[in-house]
C-alpha cells in the first residue's frame, strides 16, 4: 500500500474529482497539513464540519491527488475540445468548399450572360456597319455605273 492509501484509510472519502469547493453535506472546505508520521506536512482538504468528527464520512482529499485529478480532467477536456475544434474546422471547410463551387458557378453564369450580351451588342453593331457599307457600295456602284 502507498502512504496515500494507508493514511487515507483513516478518513473515509467521498468520490470527488478535481479541486473540491464544498463537501457533500454543503459545508465549505478547509486546508490542513498532516501531522501523521507517514505523511508529515502533506497538505489535505477536509470538510469544516468533519475536522472534529473524524468518524463521519465527510470530504477528505490530499491536495497533490486533487491537483493530479484536476490536471487529468483538464487534459481530458482539452482533448475533447481539440476534437470538437477539428470537427468544426472540417465542417467549416466543407461549407467553404461548397460556397466556392456555388460562387464559381454563379460567376460563370453571370460571365456567360455578359459575354452573350456583348456578343449580341457587337453583332448588332456589325450588322449596322454592314448595312452602311452595303448602302455605300450601292451608291458607289450607281455613281460608277452612270
From TrEMBL:
| GO-annotated molecular function | zinc ion binding
Name of the molecule in the record = GRF-type domain-containing protein
Keywords (alphabetical) are: Metal-binding, Zinc, Zinc-finger
PANTHER family for the chain = ZINC ION-BINDING PROTEIN
Q: Could you tell me the superkingdom of the organism this chain comes from?
A: Eukaryota
What range(s) does the GRF-type domain occupy? 23-66
Amino acid at each position: 500500500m502507498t502512504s496515500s492509501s494507508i493514511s487515507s484509510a483513516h478518513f473515509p472519502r467521498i468520490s470527488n474529482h478535481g479541486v473540491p469547493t464544498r463537501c457533500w453535506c454543503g459545508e465549505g472546505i478547509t486546508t490542513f497539513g498532516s501531522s501523521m508520521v507517514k505523511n508529515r506536512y502533506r497538505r489535505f482538504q477536509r470538510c469544516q464540519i468533519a475536522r472534529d468528527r473524524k468518524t463521519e464520512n465527510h470530504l477528505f482529499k490530499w491536495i497533490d491527488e486533487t491537483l493530479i485529478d484536476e490536471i487529468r480532467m483538464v487534459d481530458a477536456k482539452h482533448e475533447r475540445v481539440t476534437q470538437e475544434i477539428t470537427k468544426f474546422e472540417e465542417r467549416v471547410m466543407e461549407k467553404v468548399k461548397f460556397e466556392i463551387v456555388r460562387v464559381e458557378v454563379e460567376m460563370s453564369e453571370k460571365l456567360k450572360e455578359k459575354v452573350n450580351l456583348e456578343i449580341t451588342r457587337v453583332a448588332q453593331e456589325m450588322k449596322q456597319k454592314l448595312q452602311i457599307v452595303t448602302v455605300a457600295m450601292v451608291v458607289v456602284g450607281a455613281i460608277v455605273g452612270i
